[in-house]
Amino acid sequence: MKIFFFKFFFMFFFMRISWNKNILNNKNNNIFNNNNHKNFYNINNNINNNNNNKNNKPKNYFEVENCDKTTCEFPNICSDINKCQCQEGYYDINNKKTCDYKQKNYKTLLYYEMILNLGIGHILIGKKTLGIIKLIISGVAIILFIMILSMNNKVNKMKIYLNLISVIFSFASLLFYIVDFILIFIFNNYNDNNNVPLYK
Known about the structure:
Layout: H1 2-56, E1 61-63, E2 77-80, E3 83-85, E4 90-91, E5 101-102, H2 106-116, H3 120-124, H4 128-150, H5 157-186
Antiparallel strand pairs: 1-3, 2-3, 4-5
């Protein structure tokens, strides 16, 4: 009787272990399948997002099924059977199929930043954050310079500190000017806040 009991106990024990293994294997397979499904879904989403980004990229034309006077209104012109070319100085943004976005002027940025270097040109083409930062840095440098000139010739701690701060802000302003000079004047390639090239 004892032998039978031990046999029964060991059989039950091994059956239980094998059953648990099967459950674990099934769970692992389900997890693996779910992960594959999620990865496939994520890949498809990334592909769709990339395609949407490409379609939403600003262009000086938009695509239509059949380009004619109704799908491509004057002053835009049909440059191909499926392409409507925007009039000069205008762009189509966000794939709206309307050339209603007027390009910002390149000369505005060039004159304001190369002559004044106060960030006003950046603000006027829509890059307000960059323009305000540059305006603050250049403005502080100018104000400190005026303050130092208005002080007497005696050297004191206040004047030394003001000179040090003025040098830091002046250097930052000069660095901004050099970067703008390279991007705007030398490379002649600058976009506005909507990533649309400037009108030249």
